[in-house]
Design goal:
About 35% of the residues lie in helices and about 20% in strands. The protein has about 550 residues and is an alpha/beta fold. The strands form five sheets. The chain has a nine-stranded mixed sheet with strand order 13-12-14-15-23-22-21-18-19, sandwiched between helices. Helix 1 packs across helix 9 (about 250-255) and helix 5 (about 115-135) packs across helix 6 (about 150-165). The mean pLDDT is about 95. The structure holds glutamine. The site of glutamine has 10 residues, from strand 19.
Amino acid sequence: MSKYIFVTGGVVSSVGKGITVASIGTILKSRQIAVSVQKLDPYLNVDPGTMSPYQHGEVFVTQDGAETDLDLGNYERFIDVNLTAESSVTSGQIYSAVITKERQGDFLGGTIQVVPHVTTEIKERFKQLAQKSKAEVVIIEVGGTVGDIEGQPFLEAIRQMRNDVGRDNVLYVHVTLLPYLNSTQEVKTKPTQHSVNELRRIGIQPDIIVCRSDYPISEEIRDKISLFCDVERQAVIPLPTVSTIYEVPLVLEEEGLGQLIVGKLGLNPRQTDLSQWQELVNLIKTPREPVNIALVGEYVELKDVYFSVREALHHAALYHGRDIELTWVPEEALEADGGDSVLRSAQGIIVTGGLGVKRIEGMIKAATYARENNIPYLGLCLGMHAMVIEFARHVLGSAEPNSTEFDASTRYPVIDLLPEQKDKENKGGTMRLGNYPCQLVDGSHAASAYGQSLVHERHRHRYEFNNQFRAQLEKAGMVYSGLSPDGRLVELCELANHPWMMSCQFHPEFGSRPGRPHPLFRDFIGIAKNVLREGAQPPLPLSP
Ligand code: GLN
């Protein structure tokens, strides 16, 4: 039977609860303990797929096509697992399942209540994941902070679990913030005491408290938290802010968290091996020469929207012993001019995906700039649409080619919905989501990057390359380097007369891992690092 670790948050959100959960997974996995992870999101949306990036940041897509919270991306990257839809639970899913059962008459005339009906449905999700993943330990993160109205049913459900599966099989970890007061120059524990009180009020006594702080945490502070919150001294784990998120598992291990969890859950003690992780962190902390990459997108002021893209770029740069200097380029900045002012020093240009975005013209300008100046280009989903539209405009000598997403009546709909999607449009469900196979074409840059002939990649889009234009663009130098196995869908395209101009209909960023960069990102940076741009040339020696 699986054991459960429930992780709650106190005081404020965004203190790094997700990274802590991912790191607990890393330190358990480093002991050869099989783990799985689940995120409970208290909002009423069934999934974040319909939420605006302004509300939610990145939507992470699992291999089986679930649209989930970006924390799942961190779980996948840290623990190196591919999670499934069962790892993402929202209040919306829970209520909708309970109400569907009620309508079907499953509850036999009973009054449907939060306790027990909603809490039972929540606990079912825990058990389903445990069964399906066969993990020895399932780590479950409760989204939001203790005290939120929406989070109550989740907290009640995790409280009940202690009785359901036995207290030796359940562990409660509370991640909290210790604020620093400048006037008195001290770290304060009172908010933590309050949030632990709030947890206790609903019947949960934390076993471990992880204390986030921007400042060092003294022994006295640890003693105080131990005393007031009734947690053993060694179970008060300080987690000061570190320079890279990948250092967090090392800090937690150093503080004895792994040992503590193994002891408390009665797991067999096993040898820990975090050496690869240590090497990774050493490498990240070593100063490396940067590669200047311009990231073009509609929401660049919200860096979290591109969380996985940014991580994938860093993984690729690390592979080449380089760093990434990212220039965030808002799409509209390119719409105004040809792009030279913002792209002049870029050694590579990445054009990101976007669902429900309003504009693409700036992205098309970025593609023109990359093609004309031989700058390496990586187009991700919408970035592929931009590259195809740009090339068609160039080849046809017309400004008209477009995607029907942006111009429904264009004479040259080079990107369009498939005929069968058009029929379905009114009924919704037109999105291609999750893993699809892609057959690579020999001799292409894509095939040489992957080094294999069939790959599976994660999708999240509606529009596709329009096959009516395939032959015409191919004649002008577009190479369709990845196709669906039936040959119908263009999944990857590149330009023949360009050092490396590549686009994919899928989202490779979700599959990148620290220490194992995605092949397309790896080769993109591999080519970009050797591109000389303004400001990148070594200075000339001054003549005497
Ligand atoms: N908006 C485009 C589509 O729906 C691209 C989506 C994306 O970039 N993920 O096809």
